[in-house]
Amino acid sequence: MKRNRLGDRVLHLYTWLIIVWLSAPIAVMILFGFNDKKSKSNTSWQGFTLRWYQELFSISDLSTALINSLVIAVASTLVTAVIGTMLGLALGRFRFRGKGITNFLVFVAISTPELVMGSSLLSLFVSANMPRDSFTIIIAHVLFSLSFVTVTVRARVVTLDPSLEEAARDLGASAWGTFRQVTLPAIMPGVAAGAMLAFALSVDDYVVTSFVNGSTITFPLWIVGSVKTGIPPQVNVMGTLIFGVGVLIAVANFVAARRRRT
């Protein structure tokens, strides 16, 4: 019993150390959003201020980069959510020729290094004489996040009870009506989780975007480009707000899921 208790305590301590280690960069980012920067460096604490929240959009290039990232993320998420939901539903519910190779390609896309994906997409766009801009970034983000949505939705679909859809059809519901009133609400948690994951992957992507962006600058690209001249405190503030919105969405989704269960 004593050995078991000691092991449990060590495991709990180890778990909390990992949580602290992972949370430390986020805590530093939030803290330095309130740093009263008086010199070029923003790496040392120089006093508390709310100035950077008031001057959040004072750097026009940074604001444009953030807007570009959000617009691209929303557009790619919408496309990915629709296609990924249909693909996940097909893989989880139906049997068809080529299903095995489709499953294989889905997981290959997840395991493909971003460097390989970015360079291959660059070769594709150059060969097709496509100008690299926001549109090519959206295509790239859809391609690398599609598999994540598909896998998430597929995992939800395989747990559904087919008798619910059969009952709806027996009661006179059409195929579309059954999908809209029974299937879609049942898989919506998976769709929402996949969409949030796709949005997060799009917002913070640097490697693939750097290959296909052309003259379009996104939030991660702007941050990396500003390292030599000094990262302004507004970057920490924007990162804090993005993190805060993500936490609120996750909490809202958790609360909604608990209400559905009860």
UniProtKB/TrEMBL annotation:
Recorded GO CC terms: plasma membrane
UniProt entry tagged with the keyword Cell membrane: yes
Top-level taxonomic group: Bacteria
Predominant cellular place of this UniProt entry's protein: membrane
GO biological process: transmembrane transport
Membrane-protein topology: Multi-pass membrane protein
Protein name: Spermidine/putrescine transport system permease protein
